[in-house]
Specification:
The structure holds two protein chains of two kinds. Chain A is mostly helical. Chain A contains 18 helices and two strands. The two termini of chain A are 46 Å apart. In chain A, 46% of the residues are buried. Chain B is an alpha+beta fold. Chain B folds into two domains: 108 residues, Immunoglobulin-like, CATH 2.60.40.290; 236 residues, MetI-like fold (Orthogonal Bundle). Chain B is built from 14 helices and eight strands. Classes of the chains: A mainly alpha, B alpha+beta. At the A-B interface, helix 1, strand 1, helix 5, helix 8 and helix 9 of A face helix 1, helix 4, helix 5, helix 6 and helix 7 of B.
Chain lengths: 402, 414
Amino acid sequence: MIRQGYITGPVLGGLWLFVLSVTVAVAMSFGTGEAFRPSLILSLLWGGLAGGAMVALGRGRAVQAGVFCVLVVALIAGIGPMFVGPDTSGFAKVFGAILLSASFVLSLTPILKEIIPGALNRHEFEGAVIRFLTGFGYIFFTAIVLIPFYVMVMTSLKNQSEMIQNPLDFSIDPSKGVELFRSYSELFTQFNFGTYLFNSFSISVLTVFITLAFAIPGAYAVARLRFRGRAAFSRSILLIYMVPMIVLALPIYIAFSMTGLRNSFWGIVIIYPVTTIPVALYMLQGYFRGLPGEIEEAGLMDGLSRLAVIWKITLPLSLPALASVSLYVFMIAWNEFLLAFMLLDDPSKFTLTRGIASLNSSEIPRQHLMAGSVIATVPIMALFLGLERFMTKGLTAGSVKG
Amino acid sequence: MVDAQPPSSTGPLGKREARLAWGLLAPTISAVALVVVLPLLAIFWISVKPVQLSDLRAPEVVLREDLRGSPEAPGDEATLRYRLRNSSQEQPIQNVSFEDVIPEGLDVLSVDDRCTLAGRNLRCAFGDWEPGFREALTIPVTVNQAYFDNGIRPQDSEASVEGRSSNVLTNATFTFDNFKRIFKGDEFFEVLWVTLFYTVFGTIGALLVGLFAALLLNKSFKGQGILRGLYLFPYVSPVIAVAFAWLILFDPFSGSANALLVQMGVTNEAINFFGERPLALIMVTLFEIWRYFPLSFLFILARMQSIDTDMYEAADMDGASPFQQFWALSVPQLLGILSVLFLLRFIWTFNKFDDIFLLTGGNAGTRTLTVNVYEQAFAISNIGAGAAVAVVIFGCLLTFSLFFLKYISQEEGL
């Protein structure tokens, strides 16, 4: 039944117009702070009509232009798929109408590409549904990923009263200039964020080096050397990797309290690598196994010792894996929250995550909390986007931990 | 003719290799044993101990000394006073004693019968002290010229105090109260139900959303790399940053989400997303899905890209439609990675602590087992009960792991 051009076209058209009018309404609201409101019924109606027209009359330039014009006029007249609040400026209204109509016409044309009047075969029908879902998927994922980060950045640039006045208004006033970044400069001058940044960075780098120093020999032994208990060992790594941190955090807290390691830089440097060594070992041994053994054997024949083989042959060959493991470990250490929260009390020793947690109080404006979050997020994202290929490989190489 | 036999024991070369292997593994094993195995054993020990947060500071004898009577000239009489107390209000201290040196220039007239004086060394023994016990010891002295000349005052020489207190962590008191406490009433079943809901829906949701994202990006087009990087954002950014961003976005008073919903006519009044049952639980589950779908997405995408395209071409030739291809070709190929991901993510979602702790602090019906550990140990200050919850978690985990090791195959390589 649904595989009829006259049904598929209007149904997909209606749904697609609804998706787009929600998207445009949200985007326009966030962009201008003014009231935009999608209408489900009118979206389905107008979208259905447009879909029907495109199926019946073809998808030529004339039809596209016609649909576009009708939609723009309907939107401006206030009977279109998206309502606009009474106080909205004329420019925003017209801009929203054109944006919605244009994106709808341009995207519905390819979606209904193979839809003809009359019965459709499976390929034509499923192709159209898949194109619809693909379009929806791109919008959906981009929105859910970007909106929280957008809110984070914009909140850090606006003060409390502006936020409460209109929570939707994320537009910023560039004429304020440096004043916009007041929360950032206050974090660095009054809240010690420079120290936290330095602490986080040095702890993460130390963690990476210590982890590698332990994990490389271990991973090599598990991957290459034959010894009794190898299989059991590699399984127990996996098991240890699954022990929740909160279970360990309690005894570690007690032990650190009693030995005076709590609230110290070195206490954190001791504990972080141990949480990352199993992961790193597991990832590295997978990579070492994939390296051809013959090269190492040749090295052994030529009189190198095992350790020299590791140093001169295996490690240079596994530089990409080392890079991705280092990045991954760096990310874990940089983002770690629980242990830092439990073990650090002294503001001069805080890591960034612990520092942000200390900003979460009713006396400190939200702006600062979000500025702190941006400061913690930007370095790891920059690092990650710059080295994205390593990271993706590293993540899939053997870690599903989060 | 002699039958060729494989060597029955390990040869010297093999032994050397094994020795090297254990040598290379030794640092890792010792570190892991110290920080993972030891604490795990400690958790079992603590869970049967009546430990409070305050017990972590051992009781001690606090001693203050001073000279009373403000002597002004040689020959004046004064009193050397020692004030001592047990710092703990809950635990006794055994065999309390102290030693001190009486400064030059003070002549002791008489000593308390609990003390002995040898030369200038004073030693006093008090026996056992109840919790919170206080004692004031006075020793009458006469002051002579030397006292005024040398300027040494009694408090200048530190008295050394001794006393044995039984630490609740190391003594032989055991109790099952912790377990009784946590299993008590409906509370435990609520925690268990919340944990199950969060784990099951969080895991399945993240898998399905990840599968959808992988299907979207499983074709090459311009900007595919950028989108892939973008979709990983929720996973790579610090949890504390994104959790607070969500809290601000969904704030009931100044949150944009509420403003948007009100404006769109979905709701009339602000919704307290993270403060109401059962909405809070749904929200933390959504957060979990949002934060971890990138991981499933990456793994599924990696597996998809390794599927042979010939198969799809053949299916196309045979007239299979896109949906048929998905169900009959892709799904069976992905089943392996999907089940592995499900098991792993199930365990790690079960273990998740930070997310809920930051979003709701375990309030409004979102207290999972892991949050309960923190709640018991630090909010209620009952370390023993926290450890008991941790033991329960560990028990569940062990069950999952056995299941996991049985089903996960070596060649999945995870």
